């Protein structure tokens, strides 16, 4: 089965998928280069990797006092 997903290739050659992608085993892929620039949303998703450090239990605990109680 063929499946197409959008992604952005940065200057360093890293691919950032614009939607969740999972595979059960290594697969061959084909990459098509488009002439258009990535949208602002795509650029924002590229920044997501820089925020990984914030996604830790220690950070949740540190900011817990600012969260509203349900």
What does this molecule look like?
The protein is of the alpha+beta class and 70 residues long. It has one domain (1-17, 37-70). Helices cover 20% and strands 9% of the residues. The protein has two helices and two strands, in the order E-E-H-H. The chain has helices spanning 40-46, 57-63, and strands at 7-9, 15-17. It starts with 6 loop residues before the first strand and ends in a 7-residue tail after the last helix. The mean pLDDT is 77.
List the secondary-structure elements in sequence, H or E: EEHH
Low-confidence stretches: none
- Residues in β-strands, percent: 5-15%
Largest sheet, in brief, is: 2 strands, antiparallel
Our count of helices gives: 2
The overall strand count is 2
The helicity comes to 10-25%
Q: How large is the radius of gyration?
A: 17 Å
Q: Strand arrangement, largest sheet? A: 1-2
Q: Average pLDDT, to the nearest integer?
A: 77
Tertiary shape:
elongated
User: For the terminal residues, how far apart are their CA atoms?
Assistant: 45 Å
SS-based class: alpha+beta
How many domains would you count in the coordinates?
1
What characteristics describe this protein?
70 residues; alpha+beta; two-stranded antiparallel sheet; 2 helices; 2 strands; 9% strand
Topology record:
Layout: E1 7-9, E2 15-17, H1 40-46, H2 57-63
Antiparallel strand pairs: 1-2
How would you sum up this structure in a few lines?
This protein is of the alpha+beta class.
């Amino acid at each position: 089965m063929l499946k197409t997903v959008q992604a952005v290739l940065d200057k360093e050659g890293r691919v950032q998928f614009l939607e969740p992608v999972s595979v059960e085993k290594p697969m061959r892929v084909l990459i098509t280069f488009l002439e258009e620039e990535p949208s602002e949303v795509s650029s924002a998703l590229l920044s997501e990797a820089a925020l990984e450090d914030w996604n830790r239990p220690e950070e949740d605990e540190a900011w817990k006092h600012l969260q509203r109680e349900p």
